[in-house]
Design a protein that fits this description.
Blueprint lengths: L2 H12 L2 H9 L17 E5 L5 E4 L3 E2 L7 E2 L8 E6 L6 E6 L5 E6 L9 E4 L4 E5 L4
Antiparallel strand pairs: 1-2, 1-9, 3-4, 4-8, 5-6, 6-7, 7-8
Length: about 130
């Protein structure tokens, strides 16, 4: 077994079928189907694969798209962009900077102050609430 096959086998074991499809194969969950698109708790969203912090609830907003949307990541270093020219369009694909998991796409139609919309699959995220005092 090659190193890549071994790594993929580990990911398949660690993730659900949907999480694997989204994060390792660049898939997309159907709109309005993920557990975080209409999620309003305070806390942080982490990469489902490696646990790196990616987005905070303070930067989440309802874009009407059916996917969790954020106007910025926790830091510029948390995610990286790739050019995605699939499906007859050119988009900015968003990946986890730590483990290269596919997260979703970034569009230039978000709210101030950044004008960005990070449209992220719920299947790529794990949420941790801020402890209530």
């Amino acid at each position: 077994m090659t190193e890549k096959e071994l790594r993929n086998a580990r990911w398949r074991q660690a993730l659900t079928a949907e999480q694997y499809h989204v994060t390792r194969e660049g898939g997309t969950e159907p709109a309005f189907s993920g557990c975080y698109w209409d999620h309003h708790e305070s806390g942080t969203y982490y990469c489902i694969c490696c646990g790196a912090p990616l987005f905070r609830s303070d930067e989440k907003y309802d874009s009407g798209s059916g996917w969790p949307s954020y106007w910025q990541p926790v830091s510029p270093e948390a995610v990286r962009d790739l050019v995605d020219s699939s499906h007859g369009m050119v988009r900015a694909e968003v990946r986890c900077a730590s483990c290269d998991a596919h997260l979703g796409h970034r569009f230039p139609d978000g709210p101030p102050p950044t004008g960005e919309r990070y449209c992220i699959n719920s299947a790529a995220l794990r949420f941790e609430a801020v402890p209530q005092s």
